[in-house]
Design goal:
Blueprint lengths: L21 E6 L1 H12 L3 E4 L8 H13 L8 E4 L2 E4 L11 H21 L2 E6 L3 E5 L5 E2 L10 E5 L2 H18 L4 E6 L9 H18 L5 E3 L2 H9 L14 H15 L2 H18 L8 H17 L6 H11 L3
Parallel strand pairs: 1-2, 1-5, 5-9, 9-10
Antiparallel strand pairs: 3-4, 6-7, 6-8
Length: 326
């Protein structure tokens, strides 16, 4: 029978992620998507805690400054519409005073410096090789915060520049966490604001950089971009903006990720957990019927059997509450 597509089957990774591992994701909005998948499947995950960052230079800088707990430069702060923001961070990180913002960002560094040092796996998702450099001080920014485009120059990072900034970050990281593994991905989200031709150039630079970086020990590449562009390869897998993958596409990429990085025991746990998640979401017409109470008791029993493998304490408390237990 002829196949209707060219399926991409990623090679089994040289390392596996277990339920005991801690994962840290950083980068574009696709890092958020993958992180949420991990978190919803009970993998201990810090999901893109600094907010979305798209270019490699700024992603690497965020990691390095977090590890070193480097003092944040006041020159990176701007005031817009009564709120203070920092060029190194997403607009979700804001405050009503400059002092309040610096305190908030310092706390962010403090918390996640520890998490990076304890993480077993770091997942980095690059979105674009284009960067915006401030004209006043030549600093590359992570977020323009709606400042007029005339205040910046737009540049395309070279593969060499990406590798150089990665190596500085990697040296700092392994100095603090010698056993950490890094998974690199290129976001399948298309950056059409740059134009389709420029998007292709940008993604090509990122892909070549990842290819070369994955030759390093403890660094691997996961082909999320290729799964979208060369395997699924159809507009029905894009949302109506024709830029972002649909939930179905994200789920497909996640399934390939599971096949690549999880062993059979962990995948068996995922199957059991998915069954329980569906049971927890069930809301009957008659909450206190004998049949439903029996259903809840059976679900609670299954949860308690899973509890040695993962933290399901909140779900156990919820079920006990629904059963009327103290």
């Amino acid at each position: 029978m002829k196949t209707w597509r060219t399926e991409l089957i990623p090679q089994k990774a040289e390392f596996q992620i277990s339920l005991a591992d801690a994962v840290f994701t950083i980068g574009s909005c696709f890092a958020q998507t993958m992180g949420n998948q991990l978190l919803s499947n009970k993998i201990k995950t810090q999901v893109n805690p600094f907010g979305t960052a798209y270019n490699p230079h700024c992603i690497h800088r965020l990691i390095t400054s977090c590890l070193d707990k480097s003092p944040l430069e006041g020159s990176g702060i701007l005031n817009r519409e009564g709120l203070f923001f920092h060029y190194d961070f997403h607009s979700q990180q804001s405050a009503t005073t400059e002092e309040g913002l610096l305190k908030k960002l310092s706390k962010l560094h403090e918390d996640h410096s520890h998490n990076l040092k304890q993480a077993n796996v770091l997942i980095i998702t690059y979105g674009t090789a284009f960067v915006y450099r401030r004209k006043d001080n030549q600093q590359i920014v992570s977020n323009c915060h709606k400042v007029p485009a005339s205040e910046f120059t737009k540049e395309l990072l070279t593969v060499e520049e990406i590798i150089e900034s990665f190596e500085k970050m990697h040296d700092a990281l392994v100095n603090k966490n010698s056993t950490i593994k890094i998974i690199l991905t290129v976001s399948p989200v298309r950056h059409t604001k740059d134009g389709l031709e420029q998007n292709t150039v940008s993604k090509s630079v990122l892909r070549l950089a990842c290819h070369q970086l994955a030759e390093r020990k403890g660094v691997v590449y996961f082909p999320a971009y290729e799964l979208m562009m060369d395997d699924l390869r159809d507009y029905r897998f894009y949302k109506t903006d024709r830029i972002h993958p649909t939930e179905e596409a994200e789920e497909y990429i996640w399934e390939k990720f599971m096949e690549t990085y999880f062993n059979p025991e962990t995948k068996k746990f995922f199957e059991e957990w998915q069954e329980i998640k569906l049971a927890l979401q069930h809301r009957p017409f008659h909450e206190h019927s004998t049949a439903h109470q029996t259903f809840l008791k059976n679900t609670l029993s299954k949860l308690q059997k899973l509890s040695p493998k993962a933290d399901v304490s909140s779900e156990i408390l919820e079920l006990k509450s629904r059963l009327g237990h103290d």
